[in-house]
Sequence to fold (257 residues):
Amino acid sequence: MVKTPDEVALMRESGALLAAVFEMLDAQDLAGQSTLQVNDLVERFITVDLAARPASKGQYGFQYVLNSSINQVVCHGVPSADDVIADGDIINLDITLEKNGFIADSSKTYVVGTASPAARRLVRVTQEAMWKGIGAVRPGARLGDIGFAIERHAKKHGYAVVRDYAGHGIGREMHEEPTVLHFGRAGTGMVLREGMTFTIEPMLNQGTRKVSTEEDGWTVVTDDGKLSAQSEHTVAVTATGVEVLTLRRDEGGWVRR
Fold:
């Protein structure tokens, strides 16, 4: 759970490579592409351009390198040639990458073309909620501080936080301790220590927080059919605060603490 400085350095390398994957995707026109085409593009980029391993492929029997979750899909969407991304959609792409034995995990919800103002607002507030959670990370803080900050921001803007899924410790394994809830009470839960590495990945819904899993056993959707968005980074607790290991260049306003 707690990593040495050398281990954090290796995770930082994996995180930088994963950030490069999203920067590659930022340059793509997603409208008109199938989610399977995007999956294959990402797999080639990770394996060929970055000489790394897509950590999700084969994990728990999953056959693809990413989750592609469109509109009312909350998480774990399965890439398919039949799922074509349309103008006006929002789509979360959740990707993991392993290099030198250490895994990074991140996701971004893309706004495609002429998505509605309501959809854009949901995506923006979800990103903000993630940053509120990240901002609560420092040695001596508690896990409950993260969830409290996220849920308070979501509720302030009228959104529900999905409670069925959580962030998680990460390192040599994709899922390690601790579990990082995106709701909770400040001042409760595990005390954070320098060297801890975990994901913060809130999922916010326009309507009810209740979700269901479809027959494929993977795809999770909102119960009311309304939109959902997610934002995720892998972070490390530092001596004085937090480092975002999967930080992208378009997020340069975040200052390492």
